[in-house]
């Protein structure tokens, strides 16, 4: 079964003077999915997003967006929308005027503005000047601007920056609805919880190279031992059981009632079974560092060591 | 196996839409709104109020005639605009049109939407040009309306003393403002260049005003005529030549041509630098030593080439010479003498009958009789029909480096002293008492 691609990049390189921002990047973004792009500062995320938005041209390599090869000109096909380094908004215009000006620029009717503002939860401030908007409100308005173009590929840089929980909920909802309707989304984020909550696939960049690209589940499976916080109704017995379980190592506890253990998922499963069979209630079990974050740290640190 | 989704086409935003977008952004700024309103209302109020005052701005060209005709106010405003208003307005509009996107961090948004730096440049240049034209039109029309309402459509006394009818004055005033558009365009182009090259720097915003100030200072210095004419702001002065008969078109046409060449070159440089800019680096606003050199050097070269090109065209006796001062003063005196004769209800005489001549010295006869200075002293001689003796009158002249002069009557007081004469708009000072004139800086040509 063929898997349609919204983005297909092969051997992309991009340098700025002596600085190599992208060094032979391969990237496949499946159609109708949210693809996360993570990496430390200077990994090349923004440059890659810039290429997808037509803000820069690759020095070499092949890039196809929505089935259209991107040439040497600063141009990407219709259907691509989004922002990098925050949305571009004009503070002297109201939220509605910003969107109307954008639509007028594209020669499109202004009928969808109310709906777009409603989707991102900005209906109440539609006629307020953007000058007074918070960072989170600007992010949401930027997303509304992108929605108005009915994108087939949405490229977002740190979309949850500055968002409060309600704003984040709006944005998550919008992105999930878009994907359900067949839109592809590429987003970069420093927040691993965002990536884990939204993305089905992820690409990890380090020093301009791809160190991992694929489903999140594969990343977690490939990951080695993780630290888990375990809170039970009987910490003493749990500690004893953990010591008796093969493949589980006890890490010094943060607090007397909280146990931190290290091991593979399979060993952790064994420990949980033993604890439950001993009549102990499991109140909390969570990785100290998320699998994605752990993988991110491991892969990027390894890449930096290799440099 | 993978498959690519159905191809999508790349579609760029047209210049017309980009232009409207830029206009919307410009007029949404309170600063632009305020100056548009000010340019359409303030000149009318200024001219109307000043025209009703007993003390007139006599040190400004045509200022002394603001009681006499409504058209003088529009010319006073033009003189003021050329010095201050237009450079500042071009700074606020063209000088900020690119830098504003750097300040707001909206370049990437704009590029994603428009998809063509070329079209963005053209849209921004056209939008800022539109606003500047709107401001200039406001200054011109408002000041003219203010003068006409306050004083009326009376004849205007030209810079050689001849009378322009209301209709002629209207045409000349309109033409003078149109001529001022050329240097305004040059300043606007310099503003675009500064906005592109200097980015967020305040110098970029103020560049047209600073350049205009430097050019004004240069015009006050005793520079060679070729250097003076090679400056793109010279047309802000050269419109004076429209108000003589025949018009002093040589300096005006050269000034306009130089301004337009500067406008074209500065715009081209701004365009080339803009389309080569790297927009992926959000911390860079495109400025840098290399960009500044690339923007400045061609203009310096153009300045040098213009001086070389203008030099052969200006003639051997270019500048302020004794012959030209004498000729200009004699002609103007003759025209104004006829006017005074009419105002005093004396029998009419013609300029030919008066056969006016002037003899001028500079620095009490000790200095060479060339160049600017307030130490010119002239004796005007004229003849009246059926009167054997020739009349004489003395004038002190203050001649500026740009060719403008003001003449102050120094006797006899019955001829050029201060006294009131009756005019259609009320009592006014004797026209031969104090008046302004203009010496053509290019080679002298016969006038009458």
TrEMBL record, chain A:
Keywords: ATP-binding, Nucleotide-binding, Transport. The keyword Transport applies. SUPFAM superfamilies: P-loop containing nucleoside triphosphate hydrolases. It holds the Pfam family ABC_tran. Transmembrane segments: none annotated. GO terms for molecular function: ATP binding; ATP hydrolysis activity. Residues 7-232 form the ABC transporter domain. InterPro entries: AAA+_ATPase, ABC_transporter-like_ATP-bd, ABC_transporter-like_CS, P-loop_NTPase. The keyword Nucleotide-binding applies. Belongs to the ABC transporter superfamily. PANTHER family: ABC TRANSPORTER, ATP-BINDING PROTEIN. This is ABC-2 type transport system ATP-binding protein. It comes from Kribbella antiqua.
Automatic annotation (TrEMBL), chain B:
It comes from the Bacteria. The keyword Transmembrane helix applies. Keywords: Membrane, Transmembrane, Transmembrane helix. The chain crosses the membrane at residues 30-51, 71-99, 125-153, 173-198, 205-231, 251-274, 295-315. PANTHER family: INTEGRAL MEMBRANE PROTEIN-RELATED, MEMBRANE PROTEIN. This is ABC-2 type transport system permease protein.
């Amino acid at each position: 079964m063929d898997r349609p691609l919204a983005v297909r990049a092969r051997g992309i390189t991009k340098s700025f003077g002596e600085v190599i921002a992208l060094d032979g990047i391969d990237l496949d973004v499946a159609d109708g999915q949210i693809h996360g792009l993570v990496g430390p500062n200077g990994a090349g995320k923004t440059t890659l997003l810039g290429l997808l938005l037509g803000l820069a041209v690759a020095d070499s390599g092949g890039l196809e967006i929505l089935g259209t090869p991107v040439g040497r000109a600063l141009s990407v096909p219709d259907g691509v929308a989004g922002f990098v380094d925050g949305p571009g908004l004009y503070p002297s215009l109201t939220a509605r005027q910003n969107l109307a000006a954008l639509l007028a620029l594209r020669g499109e009717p202004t009928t969808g503005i109310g709906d777009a503002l409603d989707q991102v939860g900005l209906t109440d401030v539609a006629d307020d000047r953007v000058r007074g908007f918070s960072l989170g409100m600007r992010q949401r308005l930027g997303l509304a601007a992108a929605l108005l173009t009915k994108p087939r590929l949405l490229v977002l840089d740190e979309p949850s920056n500055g968002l409060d929980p309600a704003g984040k909920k709006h944005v998550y909802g919008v992105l999930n609805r878009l994907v359900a309707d067949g839109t592809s989304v590429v987003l970069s984020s420093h927040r691993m919880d965002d990536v884990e909550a939204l993305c089905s696939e992820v690409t990890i960049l380090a020093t301009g190279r791809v160190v991992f690209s694929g489903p999140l589940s594969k990343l977690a499976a490939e990951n080695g031992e993780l630290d888990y916080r375990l809170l039970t109704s009987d910490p003493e017995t749990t500690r004893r059981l953990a010591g008796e379980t093969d493949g589980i190592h006890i890490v010094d506890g943060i607090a007397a009632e909280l146990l931190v253990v290290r091991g593979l998922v399979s060993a952790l499963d064994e420990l949980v079974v033993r604890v439950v069979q001993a009549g102990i209630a499991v109140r909390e079990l969570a990785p100290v560092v998320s699998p994605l974050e752990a993988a991110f740290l491991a892969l990027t640190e390894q890449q930096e060591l290799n440099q | 196996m993978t498959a690519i989704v159905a191809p999508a086409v790349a579609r760029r935003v047209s210049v017309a839409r980009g232009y409207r977008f830029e206009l919307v952004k410009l007029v949404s700024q309170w600063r632009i709104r305020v100056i548009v309103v000010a340019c359409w209302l303030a000149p009318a109020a200024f001219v109307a109020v000043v025209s009703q005052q007993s003390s007139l701005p006599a040190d400004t060209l045509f200022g002394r005639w603001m009681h006499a005709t409504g058209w003088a106010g529009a010319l006073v405003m033009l003189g003021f605009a050329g010095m201050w208003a237009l450079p500042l307005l071009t700074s606020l509009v063209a000088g900020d049109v690119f830098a504003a996107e750097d300040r707001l961090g909206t370049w990437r948004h704009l590029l994603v939407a428009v998809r063509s730096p070329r079209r963005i440049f053209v849209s921004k240049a056209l939008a800022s040009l539109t606003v500047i034209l709107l401001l200039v039109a406001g200054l011109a029309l408002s000041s003219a309306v203010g003068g006409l309402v306050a004083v009326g459509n009376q004849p205007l006394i030209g810079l050689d003393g001849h009378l322009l009818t209301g209709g002629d004055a209207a045409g000349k005033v309109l033409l003078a403002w149109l001529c001022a558009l050329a240097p305004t365009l040059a300043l606007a182009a310099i503003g675009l260049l500064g906005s592109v090259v200097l980015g967020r720097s305040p110098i970029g915003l103020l560049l047209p005003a600073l350049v205009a100030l430097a050019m004004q200072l240069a015009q006050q210095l005793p520079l060679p005529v070729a250097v003076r004419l090679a400056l793109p702001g010279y047309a802000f002065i050269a419109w004076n030549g429209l108000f003589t008969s025949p018009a002093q078109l040589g300096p005006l046409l050269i000034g306009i041509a130089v301004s337009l060449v500067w406008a074209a070159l500065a715009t081209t440089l701004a365009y080339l630098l803009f389309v080569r800019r790297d927009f992926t680096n959000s911390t860079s606003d495109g400025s840098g030593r290399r960009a500044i050199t690339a923007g400045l050097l061609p203009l310096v070269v153009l300045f040098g080439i213009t001086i070389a090109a203008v030099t052969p065209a200006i003639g051997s006796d270019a500048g302020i010479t004794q012959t030209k001062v004498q000729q200009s003063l004699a002609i103007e005196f003759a025209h104004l003498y006829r006017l005074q004769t009419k105002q005093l209800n004396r029998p009419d005489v013609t300029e030919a009958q008066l056969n006016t001549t002037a003899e001028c010295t500079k620095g009490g006869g000790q200095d060479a009789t060339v160049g600017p200075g307030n130490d010119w002293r002239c004796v005007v001689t004229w003849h009246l029909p059926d009167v054997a003796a020739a009349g004489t009158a003395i004038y002190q002249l203050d001649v500026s480096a740009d060719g403008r002069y003001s003449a102050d009557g120094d006797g006899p007081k019955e001829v050029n002293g201060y006294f009131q004469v009756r005019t259609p708009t009320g009592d006014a000072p004797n026209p031969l008492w104090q008046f302004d004139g203009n010496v053509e800086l290019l080679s002298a040509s016969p006038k009458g």
